[in-house]
Amino acid sequence: MLETLLPILIFTALALAVIGALRRIRLWRQGRPSRVNLFKGLVALPRRYLVDLHHVVGRDKMISNTHVATAGGFVAAAVLMILVHGLGIANPLLGGLLLLASASMFVGSLFVARRRLNPPARLSKGPWMRLPKSLMAFSISVFLITLPTVGLLPEGLLEGSSSWLLALVLAGVVAWGLGEMFFGMTWGGPMKHAFAGALHLAFHRRAERFSTKKGGGRSTGLKALNLEDEATPLGVEKPADFTWNQLLGFDACVQCGRCEAVCPAFAAGQPLNPKKLIQDMVVGMAGGSDAAYAGSPHPSQGLGGKPVGEHAGSPHGPIVALQGKALVDADTLWSCTTCRACVEECPMMIEHVDAIVDMRRHLTLERGKTPNKGAEVLDNLIATDNPGGFDPGSRLNWAADLNLPLMADLKQVDVLLWLGDGAFDMRNQRTLRALVKVLRAAEVDFAVLGTEERDSGDVARRLGDEATFQSLAKRNIATLAQYRFLQIVTCDPHSFHVLGNEYGELGGIYDVRHHSTFIAELFDAGRLTFAPWKGGSVTYHDPCYLGRYNGEYEAPRNVLKALGIEVKEMERSGFRSRCCGGGGGAPITDIPGERRIPDMRMNDVKESGAELVAVGCPQCTAMLEGVVDASAEVRDIAELVADALVERSADDVSGASRQTTASTAAEEVIL
Amino acid sequence: MQPDLQQKQQQQGIDVAVLVSIGRHPTTGRARRAEQDARGLELALAIEAELPGTRISMLHAGSQDDSSEAALRGYLGMATGVGMGLESMTLLEQPEGSDAIPALAKHLAATSPQLVITGARAERGEGSGLLPYALAEHLGWPLVNSLASVEKVENGVVTLLQALPRGQRRRLKVRLPAIISVDEAAPAARQSAFGPARRATFAITPTTPEADSELAQWHLAPARKRPKRLKIVKAASARDRFKAAASKSEGKGGQVLTDVTPEQGAEAIYQLLKEEDVLR
Ligand code: SF4
Ligand code: SF4
Fold it and tell me: Do A530 and A646 meet the contact criterion of CB atoms below 8 Å apart?
């Protein structure tokens, strides 16, 4: 009797799964077109899954092993089951393998169940709580129905009239397992992540972010909006304005909440939970309300969290309401610091920051609704090329006594020193002076653009004002095209990222280096000598735009080591570094929360026991120094290096160049 | 405004014309939407929100080129959401150096809006602040300057709040049609958005330009920084110092004229200008 029932069950489940898959695909195809090479993507899928995805999942060994056992067991069991029970190929070898696969899956599901016993807050509950049971139902039932195939149970056991009941129960359990695993996979159950996830990996919008045999990939620059073509929507107003593979990506979310756990805005009690945001997008794509969401909500002041069930949307309805509520509130989108911690942690390779900036673009470019100081900053950028509205002619005032060489005079140098908007900020001017001192000590052939430099466009772009970004970028690129230089060095990771990763799409391709990288190189080349460190203990704060955006974790640490400093690492450092709260225009939009992000970061510093925190970003300096009653001092790496500089011996200086005399002159002023 | 009233006036929105000029950023001199004119448009949008059915038209007299177009689009970008009639701006085309007043007056007389809103003073050109007055004279309409807000429009009478020095406000009732001019006392203009600004169009209307003969005779030179007169405060206590800093200096001398005929008022002003050597 099972012989007849099983194929029916299996093929019904498969057929339903196919119908579900087609429906799901239709949902994704509501999105706008995106050019990806489908074939190449499918070919790359195994590598992307086994290498890139497991690189992220493997950070939690326990889960990664669990997943290997469960998912591996399931995939093998599913295929074998179709062969053995579906098509009736009762080969004992296949049967044996099937037993093995289902056993492995069962062991995996025990661990899944264990994790669900006392799940951390970041995990979603709801249907996810039944998943371990469904996994067990599937694996046990498959195991049992396969036993007769290999002859471990008498063939007739389930045949006799007395065993009808047993067979029926078994068939029921098989149906449950098949329902969750096959049917649920494409009809929106927890197993959806396997189907959508695999396709998402294959058709990812940023194919460059995956590693190849040649080495690791990274793709962090925002994609440019086509402003020439007036038909291109300016950002994302409704779910269907995302590209189809972005929608597919949202659908791949496993609601593991890793993003939630690392999000600084969530931790600060600002109204943003990246996991919920992705689920909101899934709700919008399919149409409906968020009432079924079973994880932590977007935080909200006073309430603990925004109640679920009050927001709803549809694929062609607005995401942010003009009045009242729609799918997402605007302040959720404006809370993000674009720190990329969520993207870095997401095992499904979902691109939260792209989505958030896409939606911000609509709010800024179409609705003119950049909150708080946003509009003022953007107006300043348009009128004065800097966010503070300062006279662009005063960009070099801080260096009036330094006699900085200008590109306009020299035309050709080794290093173009990009100052960034920190040139208008008194605190950052100290860093810049220190950096100039270091460059002169190492006799670097450098020059600055001076008043020809403009804001890189970083803030405009993160605030969604792509038009102002592109206007600034194009003018900067035109300026840079007049001169010849080998590389750009900057002490501002935001400029670094924009010049290095985002100007390329607009035609500006440069070799950009953060000052810590450059100083490390100078030290390695023997061009800098340092006095031994005499200060107290030091920790290092990785700026998001240097670390996660550009993968530079080593150089700053190497510089500190060269200074004789042993870094006391904070718990969250390197790729897990916690944002200072200064990125993405967050200090400008200033969405209230229950805590401040920089306070939390300075608390991390305190817990490390360090008396000084070394930073490498003007934003981080400003944010961290703005913390009241901080336990540690904040110094830029350039300042630490400048303080430790030792005049090199006379033979080194002999044949003194113009720079040497200039540098002594400069030092007198600095010291 | 009471809801029933609002309903009644649904169909009775008024025609508002907002005069806009090309501004000039104080530090960089770049063309932009002029600060006061943008506030004027903001005021018009506020009337529209209160009084559905109101039609706003924007009017600019001048030449058309790339930088002025970008500046004018700054106003058009304030119209987010549809149905405001702000997808287009009327451009009375005339060459640089023409007098804007006759062109505007003619157009306004022809289209006869009920309310004309303008900034108090242009950011480039003469910037004399005389345009609202000259227009009022041309059209024979009342003019209210330094407007803070429009309270209501009812049966052809508009109730306005005019800003006076030191935060005082004066409520006025004015029969339409009227001209109102706006300075820093009015609410700040909303953000201008790129999308609507880019989509908007210009309705270009040719005019018979009249050269600004007076301007042509002028000699223009960049302003020199003039020394500021310092206020000497003899204050004994912090309170006195604060009061001295916060208060505007009271004019010495002068006289307050109340209940006088326009002729008497004009005579008094004429006398004063002579005394001060402004008129000879
Ligand atoms: S978005 Fe990624 S990290 Fe966040 S819950 Fe979903 S799968 Fe996990
Ligand atoms: S980028 Fe940072 S702030 Fe934004 S959602 Fe992700 S983790 Fe949160």
Answer: yes
- Domain limit, last residue, from A479, A494, A523: A523
Q: Are residues A423 and A495 in the same domain?
A: yes
**pLDDT 10s digits, A544-581:** 999 999 999 999 999 999 999 999 999 999 999 999 99
Number of helices and strands (H, E) in chain A? Answer: 30, 9
In B57-164, which residue ranges form alpha helices assigned H by DSSP?
Answer: 66-76, 100-111, 131-139
* Confidence band of A353 (pLDDT split at 50, 70, 90): very high
Q: Into how many domains does chain A fold?
A: 4
Q: What is the mean pLDDT of residues A303-331?
A: 92
The answer to whether residues A453 and A342 belong to one domain is no
A392:B192 CB<8 A: no
| Cross-chain residue pair B194–A467, CB shorter than 8 Å | yes
User: What class is the B13-217 domain?
Assistant: alpha beta
Residue B144: strand pairing partners: B180
Complex-level ipTM: 0.85
Alpha-carbon distance A606 to A252, whole Å? Answer: 38
Chain B residue whose CA is closest to A390? B27
**What backbone torsions phi and psi does residue A196 show, to the nearest 5 degrees?**
-65, -40
Q: Assess contact for A338 and A331: CB atoms under 8 A.
A: no
Judged by average pLDDT, the poorest of A176-185, A359-368, B167-176 is: A176-185
Per-residue model confidence as pLDDT tens digits over B28-37: 999 999 999 9
User: Relative to the CA of A252, which ligand 1 atom is closest?
Assistant: 7
Residues A459 and A558 both lie in one domain: no
| Residue B34 contacts residue B122 (beta carbons within 8 Å) | yes
**Domain hosting residue A603, numbered range:** 526-670
Instruction: Let me know if residue A119 belongs to a domain.
Output: yes
Asked if residue A333 has its Cβ within 6 Å of ligand 2, the reply is: no
Average pLDDT over residues A17-41: 92
We report the CATH number of the domain holding residue A333 as 1.10.1060
B187 reaches A (C-beta below 8 A): no
Mean pLDDT across A376-404: 94
Residues of A with CB under 8 A from a CB of B: 230, 234, 322, 364-370, 374-375, 378-379, 382-384, 389-392, 465, 467
